[in-house]
Design brief:
439 residues, alpha+beta, five-stranded mixed β-sheet, 14 strands, 36% helix
């Protein structure tokens, strides 16, 4: 199984200057190759990875500065560009800019793998990188497995080294006897599950938020490209980096919790980028409720919906559970008890009260239940012979959606001691005559 390992690197002054230069050359090669692909596309022709590698080799004879980085580093840049263009098209691939909204963090990769490691002491190790020498890094966890590639990435004033390793482990087989869970992402609670759990945390303290607001106001009064403005930006970046690290840690811990012991995890297929676009509109057609939409966009980006989805996807692959994405339409307006769809049932952000049957529950939990129900279509779970029917439904027929189940199932609104009747969709199949052991 391929897994990633990321560590804090400690480069010397000479290594840091050399790495900065290599990252800048990688950025120039990316932008030049992307411009070339777009020009070829406009003429109705095509240029691929092999042809661009040949032109890069020829360009090294003319420009000495292209000979600085290791050859496979620049070839990997062209390989990454080829994959991005094949996936999105040259017109939709972004430039690598030094600054601005689409700021690119300097990085480059050694794809050959097999780099030797050396343990220095209890907490520090070193990895040998061609033309850079031995690079020290803080060994916060063991580097288990064979190294396939090494990536250096600058994170503010520091550098990080990442290893792609082959652990040799086989992903665990998905057991359909386990539970299944639906996940709803929100702005009040970052994660709400179909079994009634909520996960959330604040990524900045009250004092940090106040300091961040003061620094942003001070920066707005500074002259552009002045030393005072650069100093304010550096202090803001420290707080933002701290916030980002805490968000990343929260995503990893939450993903490990919601996938533990599960066979199926269902997420809403949310298009986060269009959802967080501005509603200002144009001069001819101005938008409505622009301030409210801007606040919603900030809340969505603060919770990190996209990063949470990536963390759950990565953890599900390691845990051996299946991950499904479903259409999020009407998941928060559908009653999980009677299946009535009514926007008026959503009384507030947290309260769901069905206008038809009077079912009352947390609105985020209702959305998670409907998400799970939508992802159960075509998912058949086999049971051992004689096993009682106490698991979530295996079809989109939601008549038994409130039946009790195991940890990953759905907890219904029934009162303690009240027995839930099994519907026709829950009736156990007749025992096969051949004695296959399945019911």
């Amino acid at each position: 199984m391929l897994e990633g390992r990321s560590y804090r690197a400690e480069l010397s002054v000479a290594q840091s200057l050399l790495a900065d230069g290599w990252a800048g050359i990688s950025r120039v090669v990316w932008n030049t190759a992307l411009e070339q692909r777009r020009c070829y596309r406009q003429r109705g022709s095509f240029i691929g990875f092999a042809a661009q590698c040949a032109e890069l080799t020829a360009a090294k004879r003319e420009f000495d500065w292209l000979r600085g980085p290791q050859s496979q580093v620049l070839q990997q840049v062209l390989r990454d560009l080829d994959i991005a263009c094949a996936r999105h098209g040259p017109a939709r691939v972004r430039w690598r800019a030094k600054a601005g909204r689409n700021h690119w963090r300097p990085s480059f990769r050694f794809p050959q793998g097999g780099n030797p490691l050396r343990k220095l002491n209890r907490h520090w190790s070193a990895v040998y990188l061609p033309k850079l020498g031995w690079v020290r890094f803080r060994r916060s966890r063991p580097v288990d497995g064979d190294i396939r590639s090494v990536t250096l990435r600058r994170d503010g004033p520091r550098w990080r080294v990442s290893f792609l390793v082959e652990t040799g482990e086989v992903p665990p087989r998905v057991s359909l006897e386990k539970g299944r869970v639906g996940i709803d992402r929100g702005v009040v609670h970052a994660v709400a599950t179909s079994d009634g759990q909520f996960f959330d945390r604040a990524f900045l303290s009250l004092g940090e938020r106040r300091r961040l607001l003061r620094l942003e106001r001070r920066r707005s009064r500074c002259q552009p490209r002045s030393r005072r403005r650069n100093a304010c930006t550096a202090k803001i970046n420290v707080i933002r980096r701290r916030e980002r690290d805490r968000r990343h840690d929260f995503h990893a811990r939450t993903a490990a919790e919601v996938t533990r012991g599960m066979a199926l995890v269902v997420l809403e297929d949310l298009k986060v980028s269009p959802m967080t676009s501005s509603a200002a509109g144009t001069v001819a057609e101005p938008g409505r409720h622009v301030a409210a939409k801007a606040g919603l966009n900030r809340s969505i980006r603060d919770k990190g919906w996209h990063g949470l989805g990536l963390a759950i996807s990565s953890r599900a692959r390691r845990a051996g559970c299946e991950l499904r994405s479903v259409n999020p339409a009407y998941t928060s307006q559908t009653c999980p008890h009677c299946r009535t769809v009514d926007a008026n049932s959503r009384k507030s952000q947290a309260v769901f009260l069905c206008t038809s049957c009077g079912h009352r529950e947390n609105a985020d939990t209702v959305g998670a239940k409907n998400t799970l129900a939508a992802g159960l279509g075509g998912y058949r779970a086999w049971r051992p012979r004689g096993c009682p029917v106490d698991e979530a439904p295996t079809s989109v027929n939601l008549q038994g959606i409130n039946a009790p189940s195991i940890r990953g199932g759905i907890l219904g609104p029934q009162q303690p001691g009240e027995e839930v009747k099994a519907s026709s969709g829950w009736r156990r199949r007749p025992r096969p005559s051949g004695g296959s052991g399945r019911a």
